[in-house]
């Protein structure tokens, strides 16, 4: 089992910044990748950014150049630095971790943290 706890959400004005954190605990040694997803009202959950165990990262086109995903292995913590925030970034942001056994993927999710971008 893996436990994920997010923090850092809140209300910010357009153009502002926030940093999300996700503290991981439990059986984390087998985690293959971690990432941030978001879900806006009435929309499907979407991948925002991901980071693999080897360090490779990927981003949704909508956040490239504005968001940065990183991790601190010593603290077992994942981060998402969000700059130049836009109203369309408003959503509940979820931390995700997964591992694979052969072709099966096992996902773990945090409880989510609300990010609201509004003036």
Element-by-element helix/strand order: EEEEEEEEEEE
Sheet with most strands: 7 strands, mixed
- Global mean pLDDT: 95
What general outline do the C-alpha atoms trace?
globular
Low-confidence stretches: none
SS summary, helix count: 0
Please give the radius of gyration in angstroms: 14 Å
Number of strands: 11
Residue share in helix: under 10%
Q: How would you classify the helix and strand content by structural class?
A: mainly beta
C-alpha end-to-end distance? 40 Å
Strand content: over 45%
Notes on the protein architecture:
With 119 residues, the protein is mainly β. 0% of the residues lie in helices and 58% in strands. The chain has no helices and eleven strands. It has strands at 2-7, 10-12, 18-26, 33-39, 46-52, 57-59, 67-72, 77-82, 91-101, 104-109, 113-117. Strands 2, 4, 5, 6, 9, 10 and 11 form a seven-stranded mixed sheet that branches. A four-stranded antiparallel sheet has the order 1-3-8-7, with no helix packed on it. The radius of gyration is 14 Å and the shape is globular. The chain starts with a strand and ends with a strand.
Features:
7-stranded mixed β-sheet; 11 strands; 4-stranded antiparallel β-sheet; mainly beta; 119 residues
Strands, helices and their partners?
Elements (H helix, E strand, L loop, with lengths): L1 E6 L2 E3 L5 E9 L6 E7 L6 E7 L4 E3 L7 E6 L4 E6 L8 E11 L2 E6 L3 E5 L2
Parallel strand pairs: 2-11
Antiparallel strand pairs: 1-3, 3-8, 4-5, 4-9, 5-6, 7-8, 9-10, 9-11
